[in-house]
TrEMBL record:
<dbReference type="GO" id="GO:0098552">
    <property type="term" value="C:side of membrane"/>
</dbReference>
<dbReference type="Pfam" id="PF07983">
    <property type="entry name" value="X8"/>
</dbReference>
<keyword id="KW-0378">Hydrolase</keyword>
<dbReference type="GO" id="GO:0005886">
    <property type="term" value="C:plasma membrane"/>
</dbReference>
<dbReference type="Pfam" id="PF00332">
    <property type="entry name" value="Glyco_hydro_17"/>
</dbReference>
<dbReference type="GO" id="GO:0006952">
    <property type="term" value="P:defense response"/>
</dbReference>
<dbReference type="InterPro" id="IPR044965">
    <property type="entry name" value="Glyco_hydro_17_plant"/>
</dbReference>
<dbReference type="GO" id="GO:0009506">
    <property type="term" value="C:plasmodesma"/>
</dbReference>
<keyword id="KW-0326">Glycosidase</keyword>
<keyword id="KW-1003">Cell membrane</keyword>
<keyword id="KW-0472">Membrane</keyword>
<keyword id="KW-0449">Lipoprotein</keyword>
<keyword id="KW-0325">Glycoprotein</keyword>
<keyword id="KW-0732">Signal</keyword>
<keyword id="KW-0336">GPI-anchor</keyword>
<protein>
    <recommendedName>
        <fullName>glucan endo-1,3-beta-D-glucosidase</fullName>
        <ecNumber>3.2.1.39</ecNumber>
    </recommendedName>
</protein>
<keyword id="KW-0611">Plant defense</keyword>
Length: 516
């Protein structure tokens, strides 16, 4: 499982000679594509994707939105037929309710959030809400003026619905979905921006593009569009909602008046997009946040209406032949994949009650697939009297394992994201190899220092305090560490568990140190 950003692909089916579902899956596997977005619940594709490990986003088509948004039972029926029927074999992680609803079918906008709520309620009733998240993709056109990003806001006529949408995302731990297509923005700008800016190419020093308010330098239009969405979200007083780019690409062919839609530009854009996303550099305003992105799209769709360019966004022709020489697998392999979650932690919410924390912990360690072996009773990271610490350990492990594939830090509002590293690692050395006791060590943060490896007879010089009587242990200090010292296997095998400062104190690291 990746721990950084991922690049997936959209699969449209407006094709006169659509390949078989098994052929499509073979192409995905050959290209090492691990994340796909389906615009509707294609039953043959959902079946073919079973047991492949490919993570799937399933769309609710716009023409079904009204029915689902007006009927809780219709939403439950949709979930049963199109989602639950394919689990657990098919790895469905997201449901995209509609596509660009607010700008493409504004008359139905009023039912968008109710439809999302009904879909989520159906997932909740089926005990699938932790596994599958719900959102809805928006066009960049919901933001009338996207540059400079720092002053971007949503169209004021949409504020009421957008507020409800963002509140839903916040409540359920889901992501804002954005269709970011620099091709359209570039062509509509009529030469205001250089083509290099749209294609992720290096800009001439004379053409540097700065946000005058933040002084952020934007080297590409994609980042500018994503940041415009982040600032628009903030303008409605929301924060901490990640963005998934659900569509981004470049057409390889167009009509006589669409000269920028060509193979060279499409190859450049998609290659550079993949490298940019996998580099995990985020955006200027959100450098620590991954930008999970779905390329638009797998196949050219000859049945799509509109200009010629609309039919030519695919990486492949329907017969499986590549449109141009982009090798998705090689581009992904060449991308610099680092930890996109470096400096980001998922910890227990200090306001969460014990009952909800226990439910979140049980799910993370069970269906969520977190590695909870170290926090089981009798294991070195077990802390029987601190549910918040144990839950944080499980939450953080789950989040780092699954974030790249849509996993979130929510757990029914019992978890929060923090960018402040809460861990204070202090190596506790065993005083006497035969001693089988709990050693509690604490030092003020300013006193933390690396303890030199010593021989047994010198271990008593280590800066640790063994408290045989636990009543002397103070928990009101600024930095502390609980070490379980075990002589099993090796007399100097030390397990150190680190906690945050009061009041949360989550375990975030459980590392083995061998002092010899």
């Amino acid at each position: 499982m990746e721990h950084g950003s991922f690049v997936g692909i959209n699969i449209g089916t407006d094709i006169s000679n659509l390949p078989s579902a098994s052929t499509i899956v073979s192409i995905l596997q050959a290209q090492k594509i691990k994340h796909v977005r389906l615009f509707e619940a294609d039953h043959q594709l959902l079946t073919a994707l079973a047991n492949t490990g490919i993570e799937v986003m399933v769309g609710v088509p716009n023409d079904q939105l009204l029915q689902i948004g007006e009927s809780r039972s219709a939403a439950a029926d949709w979930i049963n037929k199109n989602i639950a029927a394919y689990l657990p074999g098919t790895n469905i992680t997201y449901i995209a309710v509609g596509n660009e609803v607010l700008t493409s079918i504004p008359n139905d906008a009023v039912v968008l959030v109710p439809a999302m709520q009904f879909i989520h309620s159906a997932l909740l009733a089926a005990n699938l809400d932790f596994q599958i998240h719900v959102s809805s993709p928006h066009s960049i056109n919901v933001i009338p003026q996207s540059f400079p990003p720092s002053t971007a806001t949503f169209n004021s006529t949409l504020n009421s619905i957008m507020y409800q949408y963002l509140q839903f995302l916040k409540n359920t731990g889901s992501s804002f979905m954005l269709n970011a297509q620099p091709y359209y923005s570039y062509t509509k700008a009529n030469g205001i921006y250089p083509i290099e800016y749209a294609l992720f190419r290096s800009l001439n020093p004379d053409n540097q593009i700065l946000d005058p308010n933040t002084l952020f330098s934007y080297t590409n239009m994609f980042d500018s569009m994503v940041d415009a969405a982040y600032f628009s979200i903030q303008a409605l007083n929301f924060s901490g909602i990640p963005i998934i780019v659900t569509q981004s690409g470049w057409p390889s062919s167009g009509g006589d008046n669409e000269t920028d839609a060509n193979v060279d530009n499409a190859l450049a854009y998609n290659t550079n997009l993949i490298h940019h996303v996998l580099n995990n550099s985020g955006t200027p305003s959100q450098p620590k946040m991954p930008i999970n992105t779905y390329i638009y799209e797998l196949f050219n769709e000859d049945l799509r209406p509109g200009p010629l360019s609309e039919k030519n966004w695919g990486l492949f022709f329907p017969n499986g032949t590549a449109v141009y020489s982009l090798n998705f697998a090689s581009a992904v392999d060449d991308g610099t994949i680092s930890s996109g979650l470096s400096g980001v932690f998922c910890v227990a919410n200090s306001s969460a009650n014990s009952r909800n924390l226990k439910q979140g912990l049980d799910w993370a360690c069970g269906p969520g697939g977190a590695n909870c072996s170290s926090i089981q009773p009798g294991q070195p990271c077990y802390e029987s009297d601190d549910l918040s610490a144990v839950a944080s350990y499980a939450y953080n492990d789950y989040y780092h394992r699954t974030q790249a594939s849509g996993g979130t830090c929510n757990f029914d509002n019992t978890a929060v994201i923090t960018t402040n590293d809460p861990s204070k690692v202090l190596v506790c050395l065993l005083l006497v190899p035969a001693l089988k006791a709990m050693a509690y060590a604490y030092l003020q943060e300013a006193q933390l220092q690396t303890l030199q490896r010593t021989k047994d007879q010198h271990l008593t010089q280590a800066l640790v305090l063994v408290l045989k009587d636990f009543k002397h242990f103070r928990r009101d200090i600024s930095s502390w560490c609980y070490c379980h010292c075990s002589s099993a296997g090796n007399p100097l095998l030390i397990t150190c568990i680190s906690f945050v400062e009061k009041p949360q104190r989550p375990m975030l690291k459980c590392s083995l140190f061998l002092a010899v």
